[in-house]
Design brief:
Layout lengths: L54 H4 L4 E6 L4 E8 L18 E4 L9 E6 L23 E6 L4 E13 L5 H5 L5 E13 L2 E16 L1
Parallel strand pairs: 2-3, 4-7
Antiparallel strand pairs: 1-2, 1-5, 3-4, 5-6, 6-8, 7-8
């Protein structure tokens, strides 16, 4: 796969971003090199992209809310980018945990794989917004509402739990010819201050509109 997809979503391979899962340092960014993120850190995998491709700079609407009725998720959505040191931001560790959309991925409902990250645990605050992500099943509905009032409805196509060291970068961030969604959190056994695995939900758009 080329370093830059035709959708403008750069794929630095091998690249890994691991969502913080509430252990020490989980609220900090994660380097975009898989070699700098050892297995068991509390942080899923995302490729680095040029800052100029962000939705904010291109004038596109951005996601503001995510609803997943099957697991009781109804959360505001933060916008996540790259930290000054080149790491990918993750949602902050707070009592009222929220999901975060990686702004260098496509807007939900646009062609390509839109990436939304969330915690499974948030330190002393307990469960994270994606604590039940692994319980989703094929066909479950996910609705992403944008700032302009439009919404994209997705249907789950697959749910996978993978070792962080074996994160399927191309499958998650590779170019696709329709709007798709990727939800990512940590999972599997706890190892020290983190988790050994990532839970990845794959979904495809089923409807868009107001």
């Amino acid at each position: 796969m080329s370093p830059l997809s035709r959708r403008g979503f750069a794929l630095a391979a091998p690249a890994a971003l691991l969502v913080g899962c509430g252990g020490p340092g989980a609220g900090t960014g994660v380097r975009t090199s898989a070699t700098s993120t050892p297995v068991g850190t509390s942080t899923p995998a995302v490729a680095s992209t040029p800052a100029g491709t962000s939705a904010a700079r291109s004038g596109r609407s951005t996601p503001v809310r995510l609803r997943i009725p099957a697991i009781g998720v109804d959360t505001p959505v933060l916008r996540l980018g790259l930290a000054p040191d080149g790491t990918v931001q993750v949602p902050p560790i707070t009592a009222h945990d929220r999901a975060g959309w990686y702004e260098h991925s496509p807007v939900p409902g646009r062609t390509g794989p839109s990436v939304i990250l969330g915690h499974v645990t948030v330190g002393s605050y307990g469960d994270g917004v994606f604590r039940h992500l692994a319980a989703l099943r094929r066909g479950d509905r996910i609705t992403a509402t944008l700032k302009d009032g439009t919404a994209a409805v997705f249907a789950v196509t697959a749910v996978r739990t993978v070792a962080k060291a074996d994160f399927p970068t191309d499958e998650v961030y590779g170019d696709v010819d329709r709007p798709e969604l990727r939800l990512i959190t940590c999972g599997g056994p706890r190892t020290g201050d983190g988790y050994a695995d990532n839970v990845i939900v794959f979904a495809a758009v089923s409807a868009t509109g107001r």
